Amino acid sequence: ARQFVLSSRPSGAPTRDNFALQRVELPELAEGQVLVRNEVLSVDPYMRPRMDDRPSYVPPYRLDAPLDGGAVGTVVASRSPDRPVGTAVRHMRGWRDLAILDAAATDPLPETSLPLSYHLGILGMPGLTAYAGLQEVASLREGDTLFVSGAAGAVGGLVGQFARLMGATRVVGSAGSDEKARLVEDLLGFDACFNYRSGPVRELLSAVAPGGLDVYFDNVGGEHLAAAIEAMRLNGRIAMCGIIADYDTAPQQRALQADLFQVIGRRITIRGFISTDHASLRPEFLDTVTRWVEEGRIHYRETVTEGLDKTPDAFIEMLRGGNIGKAIVRI
Ligand code: NDP
User: Ligand 1: which residue has its CA nearest to atom 2?
Assistant: First the structure.
């Protein structure tokens, strides 16, 4: 089998040199284990902080140990009656072509007409993040005006579309190029999306949301968060999902220049969250979103990289904004 290990820790943006591809002999299966042939791997922003040796909500990757992450594939050998050969599963031993796991560490995937890869995106962690973030963290209400950063990405593109279906009246976003901003407006149906590289975020945001915001879904942090705080209405809610603008910067070096006094006067709620805390919403989320997709009410995109050996490249490209929609690797 082949697997990627973390060969060194990055300083600043990760490079190909931080990763090494290893060949390994797999042991025999123990009782209760399965062998999964991975078909699609997920590359996600949260993997970047895990490359640093710093405490976080997921432990850091260890040097010279195999990387992990979301993956979907098929059971090709089994010593568990619960996961016979042929079962399609999702699990966390990505970054490799073949994975041995305890059957209990695999999620059997429901049969739908949708591609397996959707379970790493819209029907998986990013989808639940968008859905739970809106419903349980931002308490989205009918009539709300919502702003989401990272709008052309996996989570952000879904946030805007789900928000509309949940009753938001005005949905605006930001993304890293003119091309992405146009696509978010034309294909994802946002009322407006700006290219945050084209000027100060504060000004660009107030042009698309002159009446202010009820909800800001933050995927980015930094300048975006500061601008959103100034644009919030009374009792506004900020769901803090990610701060990708700062993932390459050590915590002591991050400078948030925000007018926090507004948080008080406008009674703003700022709440961080992790998708796994909202697992109880999963059945409702799966039912609702599968139906939306099957009814053609969501425009879902993937950026696909071919080949296990290209996994680090897909990851690095995604961090740089090379993806539209969910970044995945097909083996
Ligand atoms: P995306 O598909 O959105 O990919 C990452 C995107 O981030 C890139 O495409 C790029 O788009 C954007 N980006 C990179 N650098 C910057 C920057 N300096 N400023 C602004 N945007 C930047 O990834 P996901 O949808 O998977 O994740 C989005 C965010 O949500 C991340 O912060 C992630 O950590 C977080 N997250 C949190 C979860 C939770 O449970 N709390 C779960 C899942 C994700 P562009 O071209 O627009 O710059």
Answer: 153
